[in-house]
Every structure is written in C-alpha cells, then in structure tokens.
C-alpha cells in the first residue's frame, strides 16, 4: 500500500480549524448580505468549479538550462496520478487529468483508467506532442510537424494525433488539444501562407477523425521554440483556423502565449463573442511563457479574465462552455503545493467575478463614469473570499488549509521512501 492523503487525515487536520473558519465565514456572509450577495450561493459555485491538472505538472519542470529533480518525484504515470490525487483531495476542484502523449503514454489504457477512477479522477483533454523527437521516430520535427514541407513528416504528425485520440477514447477523455512548435527562426525560412495552409490541411484530417461528442482545441503561441515566426501565432489566426475547421474546433488560450502587455481579457471577450472560446491553459508570467503558478504575478488580470467568463455565463452566451486546465512548470516549489495553490487561486478569481455588481457596472458604462466602473470591479476584486473558498473545500471533504495540511501529512517524505531516487537530468519542459 502506498501512502495517500485520506479523508480521515484531512478531517483530523481540519477539526481544530473549523470554529475559526465558521466565525470568519459568518462575518463575511453578513458583509456580503449588505451587498445583497448570498454567501451560500457562492460556496455552491466554488464547490462546482473545476480545473484539470496536467500529468506533466506533478514532476519537476525545467528550463532550457536544466532541470532540478527532487526526492519523491513521481517516476511513472501511476505515481503521477497518485500525486494528482493528493492535489484533488486537498482542494477538491481538480478531478480531471490532462494527459500528454508520449510523455505519459499508458501501457494499458484500461488499467490506467481503472487506476484513475479508483481515486476519484478522470481523464480530461489529451495533448499531442509533435514538438520533440522521440527515440526511434522515423522523421524529425526539427523543421516542423503538421505544417512541415515534407508530406511524410506531416503524415507522421497527423497519425500521432489520431493515436492520441484513440488512447483518449479508451481513457474516457472528451477533447484533444493540439499545440505545435512549428515556425521559423529566419526571415525567408518559411512561406507564411503555405505553412498555414499545410497546417490547416493536416488539421482537417485530425478534425475529421475527432470522436463523437469530442471537442478539438487549437492552441496558439506567439513565439518559442520558433523565434522569428510561428505558424499558429495569435488568437486571430487561431480563430480563423477554428472557424475553417468546423463547429467542433475551438480556440484555446494559454495565458503565457501572447505578445507582451496584450490585453488578454479583451482577447477572451472577442473569442467569446465570435463563438470560439474553447478552453484555457492557466499559468502566470512576468516576461513570456514563464509557466509560473496561476495568480502568482498578475492576480488582477486573472480576475478580469474571469470577469469576462462569468459575464458570458450569466448572460447565457450560446455554446459557451470553456474547459479549464493548468499548464505550469514547477522549478522551485513542490508541484503538489503549486497545483493545489493554483486550484485555489482560480476558484478565488471565479468567485470574486461573481461579486461584481453587474447592474451598477452597466449603469457606469452607460453614464461614461470610468472611475466608478473601475471601483465597481475593484470592490469585487478586493473582497477577501478566502472563508468562502475554505468553507467550500471543507464541505467537499477537502482541507481548510491545503498547504499546511499537505506539509503536516509528510507526503513528500513518505514518497521519497516509497520512490527510490530516479535521477533525471537534462532540459525540461517547453
Ligand atoms: C507549449 O508552450 C504548451 O503551452 C503546450 O500546451 C504544451 O502542450 C505544453 O506547453 C507543454 O508544457
Ligand atoms: Mn499550454
């Protein structure tokens, strides 16, 4: 038997904290009541919030300069799922797992599915990987994959995506996410229009093979690994391609994939309005695709993004049903702590966005009262909803204080004993 954070360990840790939480919650409920906001309704919303965890996120991340492993690091997909379970048990909003193939290719999909379901987990989106070469691979992706000039390379990349979807079907997943590193480093290297045309024609084949009721997410990125021009570079190109592909193709927004200083909430709003916002990869950044923990650098931006999402949900925008995933790289923290904290931060932004007095905001906009419009948003953003989040976790069986609970459990120390060191050096994640 391997060590797990059980319900009873959590309850034991929660027990001495329940009284203080109840008092804080009552006080907040009273304050919100004065603003005609029902705290109980917000607890329910927080309990219903869901964000998927990436299977690759529970291992040590890395940069192109190196990767620092840690003791007790998961060595295979089963151990990764154990760590995903720990995150889920602490915060209760992360039962979905987003799987990367071939990083986490299962030897037996039925066995992996049973293992996950036995832990209250399920598989969310599949992710293909045609941005790296794998041992024994026939054709190299050095000069691209789905948009490569050579039809044989494109065939191999298309087949890989088809295989990902086949595995995903066996695992019970419901969507497939395609991100390619295709692009160029030098002016003249790529014929821009032909490269996009080739990408689209490869994607049409993938789209045609999409299992019933699945959604196809296409993820754009401004730069990296290509540093001069990327084939699927921005949200406009993503929107165009999603529309060309058909109703089951959607744009996915990774928060780290934009030009510096871009107004991401505006991008989000445009994709909602044009009916193509399919999902998110949440993370945070200071400079580029830094893959830092969600909400760690720009919490107000995160709130403003959720403000757009909640506004769309409350106004029942047709077909609006975005999928949420974390896509982070953990280099200096325990990934379980980072993922748990990120799950909490996303739920916080989601709940805070429900505090926005939308009638007052609409009135400010109508009267061109810019100052009060901002204050209306700030009133929601500056409300500390921590007691609502903690109450929702408590009621769902999670931890009142997830990080303290995790540390008290000694989980990583126990895993270090269970998982004798497998030193993995080398460059990390993109
Ligand atoms: C690429 O930067 C990306 O955001 C894609 O989603 C990849 O699948 C993931 O990162 C790999 O970490
Ligand atoms: Mn991503």
Report what the structure shows.
The chain is α/β, with parallel strands linked by helices and 430 residues long. The chain is 47% helix and 10% strand. It has an eight-stranded parallel sheet with strand order 1-2-3-4-6-8-9-10. Strands 5-7 form a two-stranded antiparallel sheet. The longest helix has 21 residues. It is globular and about 65 Å long. The model has no long low-confidence stretch (mean pLDDT 97). Alpha-D-psicofuranose (PSV) binds next to loops.
Any chance you could write out the topology, listing elements then pairs?
Blueprint: H1 7-14, H2 18-34, H3 39-48, E1 53-54, H4 77-91, E2 96-100, H5 109-117, E3 122-127, H6 151-171, E4 175-178, E5 183-184, H7 192-208, E6 215-219, E7 229-230, H8 235-245, E8 249-254, H9 264-273, E9 277-282, H10 299-314, E10 323-326, H11 335-353, H12 358-366, H13 370-381, H14 386-396, H15 402-409, H16 411-418
Parallel strand pairs: 1-2, 2-3, 3-4, 4-6, 6-8, 8-9, 9-10
Antiparallel strand pairs: 5-7
Helix pairs in contact: 2-14, 3-11, 3-14, 4-11, 5-6, 6-7, 9-10, 10-11, 12-13
The site of manganese (II) ion has 5 residues, from loops.
